[in-house]
Amino acid sequence: MKTTPAIPTPDDAALWHEGRLYLADQRLLPERAEFLVYDHAAEVADAIHDMVVRGAPAIGVTAAYGVVLAGRDAFAAAGAGWRQAIEADLERLAASRPTAVNLFWAIRRMRDRIAQLDAADPTPALLDEALAIHEEDRAANRRIGDLGAELIAGPTDIITHCNAGAIATGGYGTALGVVRSAYAAGRIRRVYADETRPWMQGARLTAWELMHDGIPVTLQADCAAASLMAGGTVGWVIVGSDRIAANGDVANKIGTYGLAVMAKYHGIRVMVAAPTSTVDMAISSGAEIPIEERDPAELLGCGGRRIAPAGCLARNPVFDVTPAALVDAIVTERGVVLNPTTEKMRALMG
Ligand code: MRU
């Protein structure tokens, strides 16, 4: 795995170039912009786990490219027996992070393609499929952006949490795709970006993306959202999602649930922008969504310095579930679901 001096733009979470996978190292942004280069699926699984790449749709796109690398290695090692040889890598990719269903959706789609192939080198066909997944996600986000923007009467301020931008997806972004389209249409005055402890995706990535596009953005501590809401300028909370259950319950970055509760109290609407690859109709409610718990060390320090006393216990769930009753709109590329219920989600997903 080597580092190149290439500079990622906010549109480049993952790139396939001359037979290799390039991932913008999101842990370093915005201080340093570097791509890491990957040739093997096991390294890609580690990159997902270690947050080199993050954001549900970007994780799915990356996993798809990981399957391409797995197929190439399996064919080099086992020839016509590649179908068996690829299994360990597929399992390793699937074990990289538990919450974003886009990961499992992408691996399932690559498996469906694998099932159609013969004993010949699978690399070209798998690459076609991964590139299609990437391109379809980009196109879905453009559509989500337009549909979400139509819901905003505006001009209004909005709050977003974490980063659901271009760098968290195949391009353009989900929540930030809506922001981009709505800002272009004159419906958003200003974006308030929660900093998003402990990984600071809002401070590091959302602020960086929006400043790059010239969209007015103000950073705030996560706990500053309620007092901003009380001020009366905020019309919408707009967030992405890692998994949406069949009844419309939404898993997203830890803190989203609290924002939705506060929004309800203040009469502010909540929009969840996500492609249908984020919808998991196999689970009936958010109670079944596996919530990732990460190393408490991520919380016990800040900026490379320990802040909590030695021996202090910490819990570090990195997602929470917002009940459907607190969600005003789920915006997907197939359409908008207002006040989601199981019946409406079934009608959307077919
Ligand atoms: O832990 P992360 O940074 O992968 O969490 C990301 C989020 O919670 C995003 O809001 C979600 O994946 C949607 S990204 C379009």
TrEMBL record:
Statement: the UniProt record of this protein carries the keyword ATP-binding: no
Name of the top EC class for this enzyme: isomerase
Metabolic or biological pathway, per its Swiss-Prot or TrEMBL entry: Amino-acid biosynthesis; L-methionine biosynthesis via salvage pathway; L-methionine from S-methyl-5-thio-alpha-D-ribose 1-phosphate: step 1/6
Sites marked Transition state stabilizer: 162
Keywords recorded for this protein, A-Z: Amino-acid biosynthesis, Isomerase, Methionine biosynthesis
Catalytic residues (UniProt): 242
Listed GO MF terms: S-methyl-5-thioribose-1-phosphate isomerase activity
The keyword Amino-acid biosynthesis belongs to this UniProt entry's keyword annotation: yes
Reaction equations catalysed: 5-(methylsulfanyl)-alpha-D-ribose 1-phosphate = 5-(methylsulfanyl)-D-ribulose 1-phosphate; 5-deoxy-alpha-D-ribose 1-phosphate = 5-deoxy-D-ribulose 1-phosphate
Binding site for substrate: 54-56, 97, 201, 252-253
Entry EC number(s): 5.3.1.23
Domain of life of the organism encoding this protein: Bacteria
Pfam families to which the protein is assigned, alphabetical: IF-2B
Record-linked HAMAP family: Salvage_MtnA
Primary role: Catalyzes the interconversion of methylthioribose-1-phosphate (MTR-1-P) into methylthioribulose-1-phosphate (MTRu-1-P). Also catalyzes the interconversion of 5-deoxyribose 1-phosphate and 5-deoxyribulose 1-phosphate. Part of a bifunctional DHAP-shunt salvage pathway for SAM by-products.
Protein name: Methylthioribose-1-phosphate isomerase
UniProt organism field: Thiobaca trueperi
